[in-house]
Please model this.
Amino acid sequence: MAGMRVKAFVRAGVTAIGRVALLGLLSPPVKLALLVLSVVSLALTVIGVGLVLAPLVAMLVRAYADLHRRVARDWSGVEILRPYRPRPAGAFVGSPRRWLWLVSDPATWRDLLWLLAGAPTGLLLGIVGPVLLVYGLEGLLGIAIIIDAATGWYGYGVTWPIQDALDIISVPPQGALVTAGALYAGPWLLWALAQFDRSLLGPTRGAALAQRVDRLTETRTQVVDAQAAELRRIERDLHDGAQARIVSLGMSLGMAEDLVTRDPAAAQALIAEARQASGLALAELRHLVRGIHPPVLAERGLDGGLRALALTLTMPVTVDVDLDGRPDAPVESAAYFAVAEALTNVVKHAHASAAWVSLTHLGGALYITVGDDGAGGAVLDPPGGGSGLAGVARRLGAFDGSLHVDSPAGGPTVLTMELPCALSSPRTSPSSATG
Amino acid sequence: MRVVIAEDLALLRDGLIRLLTAYDFTVVAAVDTGDALRAALLEHRPDVAVVDVRLPPTFTDEGLRAAIAARAEAPGLPVLVLSQHVEQLYARELLSDRRGGVGYLLKDRVATVGEFVDAVRRVAGGGTAMDPEVVSQLLARSAPTAALTPREREVLGLMAEGRSNAAIAGQLFVTDKAVGKHINNIFAKLGLPPSEDDNRRVLAVLAYLNA
Model:
């Protein structure tokens, strides 16, 4: 048990130091070369050549930065988002617009700063790690003692020079300490390097906000379009359905009123017809209301709403809702319809025998997972288009939420939705948090 | 027969009072909130209560909650719940105490006056009255009912709504004896213990379908 843990510790330390060394020794020359290329290509813009060359070099720099972003993620678990602005239309290689796009993006200049500062930083960390490890091993394996025996004047750690037997005995423990320290420090050195990369390669606050605004603008447009289409549908349904039926109901009643003394039998038939029309009108209104805002959702919140929804499906669905209050009505509605759409998708496409829904609120966001034991292979944007999941993502996007699809071929499929929101205390009275 | 009515829309409340009075019911109280309903139920102990699901002050499911709470204090108190929409979830909650004397109907059904009054009387007598829409949802969802013939499914549906053998026979234009035979077949196919009492029979079917 302990042996295995020591082995894992040593392996993690050695791997990390190896990686730091690899990055520290390989990347500075590449970074400096790219830096020189960038500066030269930008300078050449004066004579025109740079107009083509500078964008090409910039793309090369970005590709290299992407490599480091991936390395930071895979080796240190540090996620570095791409900060670059989206390419404007018509910005093909060699066009002034492309050159302008690259030069006007602060991320381009931050990349250059990263090349400049990253070379010595990487080199430093890449040397410190291995040197510390080698020095530790020198003590641990007693190499320092051998050197001392050969030269007569050598030391190790705090023992300098090595003179008597006590000094000799003190060397291996000191070496062990330094080795352990180096192994322990290894992953942290790698992490420090990733953090350094993130500070320059990740989006700045401003860039992150700009990206968020872009995303919100896009989803808002989609939502407004979807909402307008939805309103048109409701208007049409009302016009052709309930309204028409109520008109016919009024007509039947009017005719019955006329006939009631002359032909009571015919009047009775007309009244029966009118009652039937009122029933149909009500049924249509009920159907419509369910699609706008399900009454049970208004009455019972997400817990009752989703359990009632689950009961109407042909497949068994387990619903597990763990919420201390209710989100705002628009968010609640978005969450409900997102789950409803996801479950419809499961029924239609997944060939599943069972599904489950789970809801929880954590750190200012609602987390919803919808899973099934079906065939898997669900994708957010299928090439043919028309995925129900894109609709789910759009609903969530309107509230700055997101959808993650995990659906390997063969299943199972798990959708994870995140929806930032606050919960109101149950029973809607702000004074009592318990209710 | 003494009735308590809970309905917040004056138009519908007056309509219900008029309708039930015309059919020889005595409306002892007509209230418009959940709290008032609970108080009226426990004070008057009516033969039956006709209750709207959605009532002030929260306009959620006050009526349903008040009815369930009152039945917890006065077990078996007959309650007929009316709503603009029916949910299996609510039907399940109403039936969960297995005491009968429960009805759950769409408000639309009031328009078919004769059947509605029958349903009120059935509930007052300790029977059940489930809306056909609830029943059809249950039947559509339950795999075991696939073994039934179309006729048997029809009989099961009417039985789950709370109809007696005679009423089912009348509706399907067959003899009482034929209905009894269908019901025996249904119980055999679903593996339910045979039972004579109408109400227990319905509850057994619903409990089975809800499972």
Notes: Chain B touches chain A at residues 53-54, 58, 60-61, 84-85, 87-90, 106-108, 111-112, 137, 140-141 (CB under 8 Å). The mean pLDDT of chain B is 87.
